[in-house]
UniProtKB/TrEMBL annotation:
Protein name as it appears in the record: Riboflavin transporter
Residues in the signal sequence: none
GO CC entries: plasma membrane
Keyword Transmembrane helix: yes
Keywords, ordered alphabetically: Cell membrane, Membrane, Transmembrane, Transmembrane helix, Transport
TM region(s), chain numbering: 7-30, 42-66, 78-98, 104-126, 138-166, 192-210
Function: Probably a riboflavin-binding protein that interacts with the energy-coupling factor (ECF) ABC-transporter complex.
Length: 212
């Protein structure tokens, strides 16, 4: 595959991630309403599955800087966005790179969810008091009722959506010859799609319940 075609594909996927970011953003856990969900990580982790973890890292940097251009913010926003996306998408893509199978994809997404939740718990403890000028004790009080469940829900939803749309998105890119045909069997099959859809519906119901 030519480097030009690869760069074009990454640019298309980055544009898709940014469009999702700009169109969809909302709080999901009332205890931490300043934390908003957006679905850009779905596309970023799929790009990592296609091209490797470095692609996810580059896209996370690009999207984070573009987000402050369009939405406003500062370098702390970039830092937190990059850490959040990379600990989820890069970890998942790294596992999938070395275990290129359905089990590898699932294991990568689960480990990415765990790593992102742990890292964002730590980094919110460090950065949030600086960013919002609040006492650190107030942030400690938000960890278990707010910050931890927010990241678990966000990453689980993104993981399920990635599993659900990976195959149709990659097939569309292959049909337009942006991505080469695979010589291996498809790793994300119908049973995974059914489970992913069930997880997505369950999380949506959970969010609606939390919002009353």
């Amino acid at each position: 595959m030519s480097s030009t075609k690869k760069l074009t594909t990454i640019a298309i996927l980055s544009a898709m991630a940014m469009i999702l970011n700009l169109l969809i953003q909302f709080p999901i856990v009332p205890a931490v309403s300043f934390l908003s969900y957006d679905p850009k990580d779905i596309i970023i982790v799929i790009a990592g599955f296609i091209y490797g973890p470095m692609t996810s890292f580059i896209m996370s940097l690009l999207c984070s800087f573009l987000e402050i251009v369009f939405r406003g913010g500062n370098l702390l926003d970039v830092l937190m966005n990059v850490i959040s996306t990379c600990t989820f998408a890069c970890v998942a893509a790294c596992i999938y790179k070395y275990k290129h199978s359905k089990k590898g994809a699932i294991a990568g997404l689960v480990l990415g969810t765990v790593c992102c939740t742990l890292s964002m718990t730590l980094w919110n403890y460090i950065i949030t008091p600086i960013y919002y000028q609040m006492p650190r004790s107030a942030v400690v009080g938000m960890l278990l009722p707010g910050i931890v469940p927010f990241n678990i829900i966000k990453c689980t939803l993104n993981a399920a959506c990635a599993m659900l749309i990976y195959k149709p998105l990659v097939n569309a890119l292959r049909n337009t010859q942006f991505v080469p045909q695979s010589n291996t069997n498809e790793t994300l099959t119908k049973d995974v799609g059914i489970v992913s859809a069930f997880i997505i519906v369950s999380i949506v119901v959970l969010i609606l319940v939390m919002k009353g």
